[in-house]
Design goal:
Distance between the termini: 27 Å
Strand content: 25-35%
Radius of gyration: 16 Å
Number of strands: 10
Number of domains: 1
Largest sheet: 8 strands, mixed
CATH superfamily: Vaccinia Virus protein VP39
Structural class: alpha/beta
CATH architecture: 3-Layer(aba) Sandwich
Number of helices: 6
Strand order of the largest sheet: 5-4-3-6-7-9-8-10
Helix content: 25-40%
CATH topology: Rossmann fold
Length: 209
C-alpha cells in the first residue's frame, strides 16, 4: 500500500524545508524524533565532514546533514524512483554542489567504497527492516566492511528496530546504543574501544518517547 507523507528538515540552513514522499512497504523513513536525536548525539561530528546515507530512502537524513554543516553528502539508493525524487529536492533546495545521489545497491557499493581521504566521515545505515532479519548476515558483513575501510574517528550509525540481533555486532562493547520506543540508534566510533567484562552487554540508554 502506498501512502504520501511529508518529512521536514529540522535545523540548519535548510530548516523547515519539506519533502513529500510516497512511502511503501520497503521504505522505512527515519522518524523525526529519531532524526533529531541522531544529529543531537553526533553534534560536532557533523560540520566539516562528508556524510554517507547508505540506504537513503527519502534522502532527508543526508539533506539534514548538509543543512547542519556537513561539507557534502553521498546518498546511496537503489530504487530509481526514489533517486529521481531525491535529486528533485537536491536541485530545488540549491545544494546540488554538495549532495551527490548515487543509484546503487548499498551492499555492492560498500564492497567498492574507497574513503575520500584520511579525514573521518559519517556513515548512516537505515536499511529496510527485513534486511535486519532476513539479510542479517549480509548486513553485518556490510557493517564490518565499512568499519574496516573507514578512517579513524569516523562514526558509523545504524538505525535498527526491535528484533535486531545486537549480539551479532562486531566488537559489541564498543557500541553506544540508544532506544526510542521500537527504534534504536547504534553508534560506533572507529578506533574507539569500550572495556567491558567478558560477555557483558553494551551500554544502552532508554530515551523518552
Amino acid at each position: 500500500m502506498l501512502e504520501k507523507t511529508q518529512v521536514r528538515i529540522v535545523a540548519g540552513s535548510l530548516r523547515g524545508r519539506k519533502l513529500t514522499c510516497v512511502v511503501h512497504e520497503g521504505m522505512r523513513p527515519t522518524p523525526q524524533l529519531v532524526r533529531e536525536a541522531l544529529f543531537s548525539i553526533l553534534g560536532n561530528a557533523v560540520p566539516g565532514r562528508v556524510f554517507y546515507d547508505v540506504f537513503a530512502g527519502t534522502g532527508v537524513v543526508g539533506l539534514e546533514a548538509v543543512s547542519r554543516g556537513g561539507t557534502s553528502a553521498r546518498l546511496i539508493e537503489k530504487d530509481p524512483r526514489q533517486v529521481a525524487e531525491i535529486q528533485k529536492y537536491v536541485d530545488q533546495f540549491g545544494v546540488a554542489d554538495r549532495v551527490q545521489v548515487l543509484r546503487a545497491d548499498s551492499y555492492r557499493w560498500a564492497e567498492r567504497w574507497i574513503p575520500p581521504g584520511t579525514a573521518p566521515v559519517n556513515l548512516f545505515l537505515s536499511p529496510p527492516f527485513p534486511d535486519l532479519t532476513d539479510r542479517a548476515d549480509e548486513f553485518l558483513e556490510l557493517v564490518r566492511t565499512l568499519l574496516e575501510k573507514a578512517p579513524n574517528e569516523s562514526v558509523l550509525t545504524i538505525q535498527a528496530e526491535d528484533g535486531f540481533q545486537l549480539e551479532q555486532l562486531p566488537d559489541l562493547g564498543a557500541w553506544d546504543i540508544r532506544r526510542y520506543g521500537r527504534n534504536m540508534l547504534l553508534f560506533r566510533v572507529k578506533g574507539e574501544t569500550v572495556q567491558t567484562e567478558s560477555g557483558a552487554p553494551p551500554t544502552e540508554t532508554e530515551a523518552p518517547s
